[in-house]
UniProtKB/TrEMBL annotation:
The keyword Nucleotide-binding applies. Residues 56-259 form the ATP-grasp domain. The lineage of its organism: Bacteria, Pseudomonadati, Acidobacteriota, Holophagae, Acanthopleuribacterales. One of its GO terms (molecular function) is ATP binding. PROSITE patterns: ATP_GRASP (PS50975). This is ATP-grasp domain-containing protein. Keywords: ATP-binding, Nucleotide-binding.
Length: 341
């Protein structure tokens, strides 16, 4: 019962993490820094990523085959220049627009035409990424880490994100099928907005139609522990992906895949985002896992961050200063207010 409550998307995020605060405080005391985690991934905090983690900066050295085709749009860039850049990359609608610096699916929109594209980029504080829409059927979160000097890393969480979708029965419309899912009621307004052009569409029997493309619990996604997919072959894939990301040691990959086998071979795999220490092992949201397991994993999560940060600090990588932490918080609040404006 308790796990069901704390796993709800309505349960306050900060309250959920409250039981980890004493442990984080203890780790901060041992590190002699409240912001020890800043040494974990210097590519984010100390290597040009800015006050907030830049998605493009973190992934700039990753082989293009792993990434969606993307352009970076600076604030208030003229729409004609944006369309020229899209044409040069052979990018066509629909497209995904999202903040280059953002978290938890905030500000991510699907654009279908010029007017929606203009609305997605107009008046933004931070750069915006415009990406090809990857319509692969599977989405995963993979938490990977590797200490400095290690040849092989570690995968400590694999989660399957089952996006809010409907399955056709040949008689009911997309909207009727979505409305029939009582547990999805809190997400129907957003789904209606996203699917206004196909609410009356009647999918054939067995046809799967995704009604919300953002893989987040606050958008109706169900998270399932997929730890059974872990293998030496999968680990090798992620070792290869991360080998050239200098200054990255810990984080979660959010990926699209053609099939579960894509995680084992790398074929049909696209990286949507790479998140740093602000990410969590997403499999903990699986309602089948106990509350004890959830917080045990979160304690392990923070212990690993501390150990990597401590080792990096010994090599001369600084922790985050108090003034930089305040600057980051101000930037986060400003962006958060803008995305909800």
């Amino acid at each position: 019962m308790l796990k069901k409550v704390i796993s709800s998307h309505k349960f306050p995020y900060l309250l959920f993490h409250l039981p980890t605060v004493p442990y984080i405080a203890w780790l901060s005391l041992k590190a002699r820094s409240l912001f020890f985690y800043g040494a974990c991934n210097p590519i984010i905090h100390h290597n040009g990523g800015g006050s907030r983690a830049s998605k493009t900066y973190m992934l700039r050295n990753v082989d293009r085959k792993w990434l969606p085709t993307t352009i970076l749009v600076e604030p208030d860039r003229p729409i004609d220049q944006i369309e020229t850049a899209l044409a040069a990359k052979n990018l066509n609608y629909p497209l995904i627009a999202k903040p280059d610096s953002g978290e938890r699916g905030k500000g991510v929109v699907k654009v279908h035409n010029r007017d929606e594209l203009l609305a997605a980029v107009r008046g933004k504080v931070h750069n915006v990424l415009i990406q090809e829409y990857i319509d692969y059927p599977y989405e995963y979160g993979v938490l990977y880490w590797r200490k400095h000097g290690e040849r092989q890393g570690h995968i400590t969480s694999i989660s399957h994100k089952d996006l809010f979708h409907v399955v056709g029965d040949g008689t009911r419309s997309v909207w009727e099928l979505a409305s029939a899912q009582k547990d999805k009621k809190p997400f129907l307004d957003k789904a209606k907005e996203l699917n206004k052009d196909r609410l009356d569409y009647v999918p054939v029997k067995g046809e799967r139609v995704v009604v919300d493309f953002v893989g987040h619990r606050g958008r109706g996604t169900e998270v399932v522990d997929a730890g059974h997919l872990h293998s030496a072959e999968m680990l090798q894939v992620f070792d290869n992906i991360t080998r050239d990301i200098n200054g990255f040691y810990y984080g979660r990959f959010d990926l699209k895949a053609i099939s579960p086998d894509s995680l084992q071979t790398g074929e049909g795999l696209k990286i949507l985002e790479l998140n740093g220490t602000a990410s969590v092992p997403m499999h903990i949201w699986d309602p089948r896992l106990s509350t004890y397991h959830t917080y045990r994993e979160l304690y392990r999560h923070w212990r690993t961050i501390y150990e990597i940060s401590r080792d990096n600090h010994k090599r001369g990588i600084p922790y985050i200063s108090f003034s930089d932490a305040i600057s980051y918080l101000r930037g986060w609040l400003k962006s958060d207010q803008q995305e909800h404006a």
